Amino acid sequence: MTSTSATTGRPQVPPLLLAEALGFVPQLVLDDITNVGNDCIGRSLLGIEQFLESGYVAKADDDELKEERRQEVEHGLHQCQTLLEHHTDIAFDSFEAWCLRNIFAVPPGLPYVLPHQEGLDMTTTPEQEQELMAEIDALREQLANEKKISRLAQRAMRIAATERREAEKDLAASPSSISRL
């Protein structure tokens, strides 16, 4: 039930089992954390840009100087954004790897039982399992046969009821023919 990680060489719990046990997918939580960090960087750079536009660029005396400062601010912010995003990506990649290796990892050999599996007998041999599956198949076939018989019986009851009503109509329509007998 465990697999071996290519990067660590240690046994790992399958991601679906881990998500089932935790009630959420760890990778999605880590992605959300990364997205929040990237959003903060974007908002910070937007604030810096607004500050520089209102201060440094707006205080220029002529239009040529304003345009030169605007291009300077734009170029500087682009470099700053590239640098921040690069280092943030590296940091969040390391954070993600560390979390998956340390926080969201189940130590090898640790017995784990999910709540809906408590009390289950996991000591069944393959032969016993095969016998149980054969018994289940036989019970399914028996149930299908009983449903078929039930449908046939209901059909026969409907036919008999219809024939009885027709016979009663015939009887009510010809009372004289019965008295002659």
Automatic annotation (TrEMBL):
<keyword id="KW-0158">Chromosome</keyword>
<feature type="coiled-coil region">
    <location>
        <begin position="129"/>
        <end position="156"/>
    </location>
</feature>
<dbReference type="GO" id="GO:0051301">
    <property type="term" value="P:cell division"/>
</dbReference>
<comment type="similarity">
    <text>Belongs to the mis12 family.</text>
</comment>
<dbReference type="GO" id="GO:0000444">
    <property type="term" value="C:MIS12/MIND type complex"/>
</dbReference>
<keyword id="KW-0137">Centromere</keyword>
<dbReference type="GO" id="GO:0051382">
    <property type="term" value="P:kinetochore assembly"/>
</dbReference>
<keyword id="KW-0175">Coiled coil</keyword>
<keyword id="KW-0498">Mitosis</keyword>
<keyword id="KW-0131">Cell cycle</keyword>
<keyword id="KW-0995">Kinetochore</keyword>
<protein>
    <submittedName>
        <fullName>Mis12 protein-domain-containing protein</fullName>
    </submittedName>
</protein>
<dbReference type="Pfam" id="PF05859">
    <property type="entry name" value="Mis12"/>
</dbReference>
<dbReference type="GO" id="GO:0000070">
    <property type="term" value="P:mitotic sister chromatid segregation"/>
</dbReference>
<dbReference type="InterPro" id="IPR008685">
    <property type="entry name" value="Centromere_Mis12"/>
</dbReference>
<dbReference type="GO" id="GO:0005634">
    <property type="term" value="C:nucleus"/>
</dbReference>
<keyword id="KW-0132">Cell division</keyword>
